[in-house]
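ARCHIVE CARD
Drawer: 12
Card no.: 0347
Subject: one protein chain, sequence and derived structure
Cross-reference: see card 0346
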Amino acid sequence: MMRSIIAASLSALALGSVAHAQDTSYTLGAGYERFSGDGVDLDSVVFRGRYDFNQYFGVEGQANIGIGDDSVTVLGTPVDVSLDYAVGVFGVVRAFSNENGNVFLRAGYTDSQVDASVPGYTVSADSDAWAYGVGGEYLFDGRNGVRFDYTKFDYDGGDADVFGVSYVRRFGG
């Protein structure tokens, strides 16, 4: 009798795990993001991966690599500013979600490195920030799509508004 109960329990657990696994998915993407703050606009390429626990909750990580630089004038001297990298991890809540797209909120923590240089001298600054934002994805065929998002990086010394557009590819459920 006890073996039958254990076998039935394990079978129910296995079937529940399979059903849960079909609800999960992950998404990979790459695109462009622009950091704007304190009079500086910095362009970057972003690579992102997201794991969805279910239709409404997930976690994502991203890495930005700076491309190009911007120039600002400080005390009459032109200073070139560039983004080396930014990495972050975010919790994602999708308020609306179906097989063709979703609208999401996200919040997380990031670390960034920025360089500022004048001829003959370069300074690097490593800053971490809490970040939060909103966005949406539209999947053309249920697997491939486009993502638009806005994220506010809240650094100790100031803020950056980050706007992005990316290609996304969904795998799994």
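Annotation on reverse: The radius of gyration is 21 Å. The longest strand covers residues 77-98.
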